[in-house]
Amino acid sequence: MRLLIALFALLPCLGWADVRPAGIPEEAKYAKVDRVYDGDTLVLMGGSRARIIRLDGIDAPERDQPFGPVATAALEYMVGRSIYYFETGKNDQYAAVVATLYHSKEGYNINASLVCAGFAWWYEKYAPENQLLEGCEKEAREAPKGLWEDDNPVPPWEWRGR
């Protein structure tokens, strides 16, 4: 019995405990990432159906659009193999969950980080009150960073309309 108690006491030291970084909402769920589809969409592992996650409040360049592969690579780098996600809604058009993502080890907001680094636009149409994303886009434009280094970046919603 003492050995069993000692083993359970060691679990946190072995890294088996759920250690949630600071800044992640308690309601956020932990998940393993199957693949990144593009700069603002990913697929989670688990279950019999793929769970598609669409990042809330942002719109990244499409994969066939200038800067699209770079935005996709940035999201792949930030999510790594796992994330925490906080559902903010559903997108019936794509059967996706709309969510804010958080880095699983450092706890930073991935949606905002993509916009701050110039890898995505703040999607004002769907997140008009999001002051964090608004400030991030302003910062990236003024720097200029990422896609804002282009003289005339085309927003994805216009690219899709072509």
Q: What does this entry look like structurally?
A:
Strands 1-2-3-6-5 form a five-stranded mixed barrel. It is globular and about 45 Å long. It contains five helices and seven strands. It has helices at residues 2-10, 68-79, 110-116, 131-142, 156-160, and strands at 29-38, 41-44, 51-55, 58-59, 82-91, 96-103, 121-122. It has a single domain (23-160), classed as OB fold (Dihydrolipoamide Acetyltransferase, E2P), CATH 2.40.50.90. The termini are far apart. The protein is of the alpha+beta class. A hairpin with a 2-residue loop joins strand 1 and strand 2 (41-44).
Question: What's the total count of β strands?
Answer: 7
| H-E string | HEEEEHEEHEHH
Residues in β-strands, percent: 25-35%
The oligomeric status of these chains comes to single chain
Q: Look up the CATH topology.
A: OB fold (Dihydrolipoamide Acetyltransferase, E2P)
Give the strand line-up of the largest sheet: 1-2-3-6-5
Rg calculated over all Cα atoms: 18 Å
Which second-level CATH architecture applies? Beta Barrel
- How many helical elements? 5
Distance between the termini: 69 Å
